[in-house]
Amino acid sequence: MENIDDTVLELIIGHLTSGEKSYHDGLRVLVVGGAGFIGSWLSESLVSLGANVTCLDNLSTGSLDNISRIKGKSNFKLLISDVLNVELSGEYDLVFYGASMPAPDMYMANPVKAMLTDSIGLYRILSKTLDWRSRVVYMSSSEIYGNPEVVPTPEEYYGRVNPIGLRSPYEESKRFAEALTMAFYREYGVDVRIARIFNTYGPRLDPNSPYSRVVTRFIERALRGEPIEIHGDGSQTRSFTFISDTVSGLLKLASCSKCSGEVFNIGSIEEVSIIDLAKTIIELTGSKSQIVHVPPRPDDPRRRKPDISKAMSKLGWTPRVSLIEGLKLTIDWFKRRISFE
Ligand SMILES: NC(=O)c1ccc[n+]([C@@H]2O[C@H](COP(=O)([O-])OP(=O)(O)OC[C@H]3O[C@@H](n4cnc5c(N)ncnc54)[C@H](O)[C@@H]3O)[C@@H](O)[C@H]2O)c1
């Protein structure tokens, strides 16, 4: 039987050039939020590329399960601690900062902690990089665009965000974090780069978590034959990016020698409405689930689609996994993990 984790890892590594692979070999890398969904795939890819990886995570939404394939490896170290009070003793050549609270239900329930992690937590790590002289990749989000008037949205678009809305703890801390990252670049010359990641899905996005996001929630409901809830009429769109494409984009950005102080959209250009996503998942799972409509979420963006010309030309990155292919892999992965009692 095909091992889907191996398939995802092969897709990630297969996207990299030999120069990008050798850049990571032997590097000392700190992945903040490294036991999370994206962070664990990043950590696993880096371990397989020969980097010496330290994963810092408080396991609030991340899990030991996510890193079970690399936990015993000699070039992997786990530091269970909160970025808000961790004392770091090592030194690192490269830092990925991905500690955050990206799930809306979670950051709406814990808005203060969400904001502190992407501000004070990031400040603490950026300050350390002055001594380490590390390169930093900050993992930002398409959410900084808010509800954009320009779609496909290029990096030059400033965003349209409600600063006091229910989504603001996430959107505004991501915006602050980008500004702070650029401040360290301009004032102290830290070698930073920013990835604006669009909705990413795939294996390890926990469907049993109360905070699980739209793709996994729909897959879980469909596999159980339970109703699929859609906020509003479902005409709002997203560009769902398969995990292997997001992670290869991050690794390419990290190894890019001419990307200091630059920001890149990392996301799929295959835009789909939420109602069509639900219908596709019902079809792919052969489910009897019904679609039910619930009130729209406040400030929910109407459309989300990146302009990725900059990543294509400067990083040589384009997403490779289609929505159907990615959904099939994700559904197969979840089928083997969901218990149906
Ligand atoms: N998944 C997406 O669709 C998406 C989209 C855009 C941006 N991003 C960004 O990518 C990054 C990773 O997101 P993800 O989807 O993997 O989410 P995730 O919740 O799986 O990962 C976040 C990780 O950070 C850890 N963490 C949170 N607060 C921490 C703290 N105070 N100290 C130490 N560790 C802490 C969590 O335990 C978790 O392992 C985040 O910065 C997120 O904003 C994700």
Question: What do these coordinates show?
Answer:
By secondary structure, the chain is α/β, with parallel strands linked by helices. It has a domain at 4-198 and 244-268 and 305-320: Rossmann fold (3-Layer(aba) Sandwich), CATH 3.40.50.720. It has helices spanning 4-14, 18-24, 37-48, 104-109, 111-132, 168-188, 214-224, 243-255, 274-285, 309-315, 323-335; strands at 28-32, 52-57, 76-80, 94-97, 135-141, 191-197, 200-201, 228-231, 237-239, 241-242, 262-266, 271-273, 291-294. The model has no long low-confidence stretch (mean pLDDT 94). Bound molecules: nicotinamide-adenine-dinucleotide (NAD). Nicotinamide-adenine-dinucleotide binds at residues 33, 35-39, 57-62, 82-84, 98-100, 102, 117, 121, 139, 141, 197, 199-200.
Quick structural overview:
The longest helix has 22 residues, at 111-132. A seven-stranded parallel sheet has the order 3-2-1-4-5-6-11, with helices on both faces. The chain has a two-stranded parallel ribbon with strand order 7-10. The chain has eleven helices and 13 strands.
